[in-house]
Automatic annotation (TrEMBL):
This is Transcription initiation factor TFIID subunit. Residues 29-99 form the Bromo domain. Gene3D superfamilies: Bromodomain-like. PANTHER family: TRANSCRIPTION INITIATION FACTOR TFIID, TRANSCRIPTION INITIATION FACTOR TFIID SUBUNIT 1. Pfam families: Bromodomain. It comes from the Eukaryota. One of its GO terms (biological process) is RNA polymerase II preinitiation complex assembly. The keyword Cell membrane does not apply.
Amino acid sequence: MVRRRPEPEYGKHAPDYAQASKRRRGGESKEDISYLFIKPVTKKEAPDYLDIISHPMDLSTIRDKARRMEYKSRDDFRHDVYQIVFNAHKYNDRRNPGIPPLADQLLELCDFLLDQYDAELTEAEAGIE
């Protein structure tokens, strides 16, 4: 007999957006606000997404840009996080109203962490040419 793991419950704010669970793997929990924004949106998930969103952004792209040291300041980094929020609102406000609040929480967390590490970031930014 083959045992299957039960599907985790995703996002208490987006209960009817269960399809995201098929593409998101790993240690997500229903408290994890980032699971919808980890990977780029695919045509399969949202065929019209790129018709509506002209500047797609996701957390894996942000991670890759950080690893390639493309961010010259925390403002550049925050701009990309804000782009996720902007896109979430533009695409989902009428389609999936539970998703934009998760994006808002992501930006709040970003701002909190940027503020918490202000001294370290200021020192790092001073060393960037």
